[in-house]
Structures are given as C-alpha cells and as structure tokens.
Amino acid sequence: MTQAPMSEFPDIPRHIAVIMDGNGRWARERGKPRRDGHRAGAESVREAIDACRELGVEYLTLYAFSSENWSRPADEVTALMGLLDRFLDEKARDLDKQKVRLLTIGQLERLPEKTRRKLDRLRDRTRGYTDLTLVLALSYGAREEIVRAARSLAAEAAAGRLDPESIDCATFASRLQTAGIPDPDLLIRTSGEMRVSNFLLWQISYAEIIILGKNWPDFRKDDLKAAVAEYRRRHRRFGGL
Ligand code: FPP
To answer: 193-220: per-residue pLDDT in tens?
Structure first.
C-alpha cells in the first residue's frame, strides 16, 4: 500500500518498542507446548510490522530474545532460533517488497552461525530502505549494552584520546548499539507485566509506556493502532510543565 505522508499524522510516534510477553502463558492456557506459543507469537510480529507500515511509524524495535533467555531449556532456545530462521527466510522474500530495512542490536556473536549469516545478508539487502526500520533485539540486554559503551569510552580516555570531562549524554548515546536511531516514543508490553526487563534502559527515559493485558500471540494490528491512539491522547512533557 502507499504510505500516507508523515505530515498527515503529526503525533504518530516515530519509534515504537515492544516487549513481546506471554507466549508461554498463551500456550499453557491452551494445553500446548511453549514452542506453539512462540510460533503464534511470530505471526503477531507480522501484524505489528504491517500496522507500523500502515501508520507511517519509522522505527519498530522488537525484544525477540534477551540475554537472559539463554538460560531457558535447550529445546525452547532451539525452537526460538528455528522460528527466527524461518522468519528471516520468509522476510527475505517480502522485506524488499515492503521496503522495510532490518537492523539488529544485541550480542549477535552468541547466535548460531547460520542465523548470523542470514541476518547479515538481510541487513545488507535492505540497507537502502527508509519507510520502516525493523530493529530486532537479539541476545540483547540493556545493562550489557551500557557496560560496553562505558568500556569503550574508558579505553579511549585511558589511551589519552578522550577527555573524560567532554563526555556528555550525546557522547554516551553514540557508543550504544542504537546510535543514530531516535529514542522510542512509545513502549508497549503485553501480558500485563509492569516491568522493563533490561530492555533499552537508556533509550526509554522519556518513552510513554502502555501495558496491554493480552498475551503476545493474541496481539493484532488493531492493538498497535489502539496503543498509538492512546499515546496521542497523552500530554508529553519531557519533565517540564
Ligand atoms: C516472551 O514470552 C517472548 C519471548 C521470550 C520471545 C519472543 C519471540 C517471538 C515472539 C517469536 C519469534 C520472534 C521473531 C522475531 C520471529 P514468554 O515465553 O516469556 O511468555 P511467558 O512469560 O508467558 O512464559
């Protein structure tokens, strides 16, 4: 579909970040294995992407796998990696058509080699698109990201190439993996939990937070659109009056 020009939707969030929670509960409620919940959750990912394209949202960041998720049972980790591979295979076909650019954040070196290669190829192939950027957070942890940024600044200061007094918020943000990406305006979490779970801790400082009661596999385009409508009703003050 043709996208409406941004000016028609002045209050649309530029960047939406999502904590996709409740796949396990969705499966349990149906007497199914957890991997079925994740598989249904992968369908909701497509819904979220389509809703963002229809609204003219520029960035969508999805928390697909946290650094803590590695401690889940091996068969669940394998199922999640398999779903990611399948998603990337399918997306290789239609990200072009949809003009969606793929970016990733997280410790990708921990992912299977095959998955890393797919991600590299798809990032490369879609790098020119500007309509929507899909940022997949994979093996991601915000504290780890912040520690890496601090370490890189400390190394430069120790080498005498950086004056510690010159470090400000912009310098720090430029060392995060999200450098160049605007901070999320809206953070959505499903399944009713009121936590941020080590997700984008620096970047969500001023994000509006919306918690939805439903589990992620039940998330549809209209849920994202309703969250955006709620976001537009909120008065954003950035700490001022
Ligand atoms: C949280 O549910 C969800 C995850 C740990 C993984 C999210 C993954 C997907 C939606 C599918 C694959 C992703 C892509 C990009 C294709 P949970 O298992 O913690 O649920 P629970 O809290 O109910 O147990």
So the answer is: 999 999 999 999 999 999 999 999 999 9
Closest C-alpha residue for ligand 1 atom 1: 21
CB contact at 8 A, 104 and 64: no
Structure tokens of 55?
């609204």
Which one is catalytic: 69, 85, 131, 198?
A: 69
CA 101 to centroid of ligand 1, rounded, Å: 22
The CATH code of domain 14-233 reads 3.40.1180.10
Tokens at 152, concatenated? 């890189």
CA atoms 93, 131, 109, 71: torsion sign: negative
Strand intervals (E) in 87-207: 100-105, 132-140, 186-189
Take atom 22 of ligand 1 and give the residue whose Cα is closest: 22
For residue 24 and ligand 1, the question of a CB distance below 6 A is answered with yes
Domain residue ranges in the chain: 14-233
- Give the amino acid at 64: A
Nearest to 103 by CA among 84, 119, 83: 119
